[in-house]
Amino acid sequence: MAEAYIVGAVRTAGGRKGGRLAGWHPADLAAEVLNALLDRTGADPALIEDVIMGCVSQVGEQAGNVARNAILASRLPESVPGTSVDRQCGSSQQALHFAAQAVMSGAMDIVIAAGVESMTRVPMGLSSQLPAKNGFGVPKSPNVEQRYPGVQFSQFTGAEMIARNYGLSREDLDRYALLSHQRAAAATRAGRFNAEIVPVEARLADGTRNGEMHTADEGIRADSTLESIGSVKLIADGGRVTAATASQICDGAAGLMVVNEAGLKKLGVKPLARVHHMTVIGHDPVIMLEAPLPATQHALRKAGMSIHDIDLYEVNEAFAPVPLAWLKATGADPERLNIHGGAIALGHPLGGSGAKLMTTLIHALHTHGKRYGLQTMCEGGGLANVTIIERL
Predict the structure, then answer these.
(1) Where does the Thiolase N-terminal domain lie (predicted)?
(2) pLDDT band at 355, cuts 50/70/90?
(3) DSSP string covering 215-271, please?
(4) From 180, 250, 288, 378, which residue has the greatest number of CB atoms within 10 Å?
(5) What is the pLDDT of residues 318-351, one digit of tens each?
(6) CA 233 to CA 219: how far, in whole Å?
(7) Over the stretch 75-116, which tens digit does the pLDDT of each residue have?
(8) How far apart are CA 232 and CA 244, in angstroms?
(9) 271 φ, ψ to 5°?
(10) What does DSSP say about strands 250-259 and 110-118: parallel, antiparallel, or unpaired?
(11) Cα distances (Å, whole numbers) of residue 226 to 45, 181, 238, 240, 249
């Protein structure tokens, strides 16, 4: 079977809700990433055989197959097809898996895996908030209710359950959140993100454009202290999680160009990384966010590796309890985890985060001269993807 190589990896800098990317239509923002991949690789646009794009809230401006709309908004020709994927927060990580599987099978040679989410213009959960009438419009079906009677699937509940089950205190979570901001701020100052970020025009929600370029993640709070984070109100009475220890609502897009050996020859480029292993599992939908823990163990077994063989880890910071519990369960080295900060500081643009994290992981492996990287993230419904890559 052919190998899957990543030859391009880019992302926009994250925009806060209502911030510097709020004026971008999500299809146009995603198109900027597609165009940047063409620029970075020098690929003939007509050689792209498919665009697989993750997006969670596929409603409003992100409805109607946002992948196809992004293609039509880009320099790609009409002949390039596109499809949109929803595996919740892992949508664009799954897009990468689908792209890799396509080129490994030989069915295609050059595929773009991408993701986009404008959480300003298409608010989180909007697609499940249509007015319910006579029972219609409720996501939880009667059969699911019978299997999980009276249970409200909630990521917030899951985060609190993980904190309790793994003995994580409020202070543990606050300290981790502070570290995320500190690492992200340090990485920004050192220019660690420069090679991966696609500069785009800052466009405010009211349509204002002043010619400035958006080149830095907007959510980083470089002046955060343990005291300021500790002053944030708990989400639930008696809980441990706050808005400060949860991922930031974010606008953003990211993309990866994935090829096999034939694709490498067509493009005449050197690969950045090789996809070494891919896993996806289902887990308990009630605790929901715990799935990356067994998924990582499963992936390592399948790959014949130990956690200590992995040089860098990207574990999405949906909530601080997730990466902290992951560290406890895997015995991983905390100094290798999210070394340039995570979603608590950088933002979590839902369907765009999988490609965003992989982009950061690839560039971090090159920056620090490391070999293997592992990415995983919790996903709604109790799911998790794991991807292991090798820097080339």
Answers:
(1) 5-261
(2) very high
(3) -S-TT--TT--HHHHHTSPBSSTT---BGGGBPPPEEEEEEEEEE-HHHHHHHT---
(4) 378
(5) 999 999 999 999 999 999 999 999 999 999 999 9
(6) 19
(7) 999 999 999 999 999 999 999 999 999 999 999 999 999 999
(8) 7
(9) -75, 150
(10) antiparallel
(11) 48, 11, 20, 15, 21
DSSP 325: H
Reference 350, options 218, 214, 254, 258; nearest CA is: 254
| HSE of 158, CA atoms in CB hemisphere, 13 A | 25
Of the candidates 362, 370, 381, the one whose C-alpha atom is nearest the C-alpha of residue 280 is: 381
Residues acting as catalytic residues: 89, 348, 378
Q: What is the 3-state secondary structure (H, E, C) of 145-203?
A: HHHCCCCCCCHHHHHHHHHHHCCCCHHHHHHHHHHHHHHHHHHHHCCCCCCCECCEECC
Which pLDDT score is estimated for 27? 98
Comparing CA positions, the residue from 336, 156, 353 lying closest to residue 239 is 156
Task: Identify the bridge partners of residue 373 per DSSP, sorted by sequence position.
Answer: 312, 389
Closest by alpha carbon to 241, among 317, 173, 326, 153? Answer: 173
User: Can you tell me whether residue 313 is helix, strand or coil?
Assistant: strand
Give the burial string for 133-168 (b: 16+ CB within 10 Å, else e): eeeeeeeeeeeeeeeeeeeebebbbbbbbbbeebeb
Written as six digits, the tokens of 287 are 């605790």
